[in-house]
Amino acid sequence: QVQLQASGPGLVKPSETLSLTCTVSGVPITNFYWGWIRQPPGKGLEWIAYIYYSESTNYNPSLKSRVTISVDTSKNQISLNLSSVTAADTAVYYCARVLGYCSGGSCYGRFDPWGQGILVSVSS
Amino acid sequence: QSVLTQPPSVSGAPGQRVTISCTGSSSNIGATYDVHWYQQLPGTAPQLLIYGNNIRPSGVPDRFSGSKSGTSASLAITGLQAEDEADYYCQSYDTSLSGSVFGGGTKVTVL
To answer: Would you say A96 and A31 are in contact if contact means Cβ atoms under 8 Å apart?
Structure first.
């Protein structure tokens, strides 16, 4: 059974970098594409990025200038860095496996399963 | 403003049928990309409910069904139950974004 667990600081100061890790169990991360999605409190879902272990990546254009996603195959982890954060980046951040067709960093499939999510607040 | 448009809320009595629409454009649903649906119970992560427009993952009751036509998709819940109270989101791929897009979500209330 595939399980995902996101971890990282729950509070980040404005202008600093948000760093999260998603630890995957039950399957090698090299077998699939993986994604990050976020959800501001009381609002809807926003796709952030995809990554494949070969470091094929794709970012949401609205966040591309501030986002970096990477993998550590030795630890079976996916990481997310979001720089220059503001209060607008306060959200629950989810990692998820991508199922379906992916090619060259673009994925046309669905997210399944999702990790439990981690609330990150941006405040001084 | 979400790329895919959903009604903010729908409601129905137990046993009734409700539908949730998801309206896109020629750069996503209308470009023949699949639509997927998620159920998010209060305080939990979204869970895949329907994928590939109308396919239920193992364990999802057959009360849930999906369809797609043109630039829109729909999720139907028949025989509404109290446990179906949740937020529901549609998702597809968008060529303009070159990535995934979600609807704004629909809150289902069981009266």
So the answer is: no
